[in-house]
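Tokens as discussed.
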């Protein structure tokens, strides 16, 4: 087996792209009506089903099993959708303020790629089991790539109790005092949307500072190649004369299962950005998930919980906005307190694991 692998590698390195045939055989020819609608990497699910043919008398005859599969089409679509990870079966048809009207398809009908483009999903294409297996089999060249390469995996990590917001409130307080004070309220897994808030009633004082927190168990990830925090935004506002931004930094939680008032002060000095700051007004869109790529992948804890704090850039930089007039910067997102995970914040992580070497007794298929 090892000798064969060395010979093949030499052939590839010398520019030989046609691999030798085994036993003088040739690649199976697939009839046009049995060919897959797309390349095998776009197939989502497949299953064996009964092939039933209707007779002239109205009865049905079972002609055996065939293969049914779902796949991602090349039909790009526009519009707003509610995604869970990369898939959606819910389209937003109307928005009025914070209220949305959606159409629920009952199953996943749309797929979003890494560029944010959305494509239709087609269900129930069919072919024979033999033709399906022939077109989706692992070729020798694929096995060589797996042997020398690494397998990419993508996982969405949802939070449980360790997400929500903490705040410091005082009707009249100097900026430095309230920013570094003990928190006086904490809401874990809330059903009230919020994540950051900087509010002043004027007169040079600050009234409210809110910081958001997210945590998820990300242990087990290999070599991380990309990551993004995905939050469902319901509203965002900035009435300060200065442009405001959302800052994401590595956070601290006393208990990853919940949050407490102490987590407000615990995160006062957690300010180093792990993602590009996002402009409050120009960088966020209401009534949909907003994906924020992380630029510092070291923020992902591969042996435990990843904790992120979301705060105003004013707060993170300890640089207050103009406080002489009543004004507010706030961003409202949904947390895990809502039923299901359709609106929950989640961390999407792409990572690679070392591929497994070819088994000595494994099947080899030449194409």
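Sequence:
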């Amino acid at each position: 087996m090892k000798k064969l692998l060395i010979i093949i590698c030499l052939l590839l390195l010398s520019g030989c792209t046609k691999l030798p045939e085994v036993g003088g055989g040739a690649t199976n020819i697939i009839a046009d009506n049995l060919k897959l609608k797309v390349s095998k990497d776009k197939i989502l699910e497949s299953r064996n089903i009964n092939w039933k043919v209707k007779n002239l008398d109205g009865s049905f005859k079972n002609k055996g099993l065939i293969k049914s599969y779902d796949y991602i089409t090349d039909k790009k679509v526009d519009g707003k959708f509610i995604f869970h990870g990369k898939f959606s079966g819910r389209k937003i048809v109307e928005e009025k303020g914070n209220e949305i009207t959606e159409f629920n398809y009952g199953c996943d009908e749309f797929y979003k790629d890494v560029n944010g483009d959305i494509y239709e999903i087609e269900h129930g294409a069919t072919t024979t089991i033999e033709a399906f297996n022939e077109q989706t089999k692992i070729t020798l060249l694929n096995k060589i790539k797996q042997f020398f390469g690494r397998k990419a995996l993508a996982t969405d990590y949802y939070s449980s109790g360790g997400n929500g917001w903490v705040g410091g409130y005082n009707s009249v307080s100097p900026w430095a005092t309230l920013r570094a004070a003990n928190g006086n309220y904490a809401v874990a897994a809330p059903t009230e949307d919020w994540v950051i808030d900087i509010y002043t009633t004027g007169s040079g004082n600050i009234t409210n500072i809110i910081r958001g927190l997210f945590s998820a168990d990300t242990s087990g990830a290999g070599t991380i190649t990309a990551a993004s925090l995905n939050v469902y935004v319901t509203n965002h506002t900035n009435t300060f004369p200065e442009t405001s931004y959302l800052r994401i930094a590595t956070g601290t939680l006393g208990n990853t299962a919940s949050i407490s008032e102490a987590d407000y002060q615990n995160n006062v000095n957690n300010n180093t950005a792990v993602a590009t700051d996002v402009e409050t007004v120009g960088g966020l869109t209401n009534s949909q998930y907003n994906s924020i790529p992380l630029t510092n992948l070291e923020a992902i804890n591969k042996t435990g919980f990843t904790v992120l704090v979301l705060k105003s850039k004013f707060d993170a930089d300890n640089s207050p906005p103009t406080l002489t007039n009543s004004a507010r910067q706030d961003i409202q997102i949904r947390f895990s307190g809502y039923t299901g995970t359709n609106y929950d914040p989640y961390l999407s992580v792409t990572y690679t694991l070392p591929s497994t070497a070819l088994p000595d007794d494994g099947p080899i298929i030449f194409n």
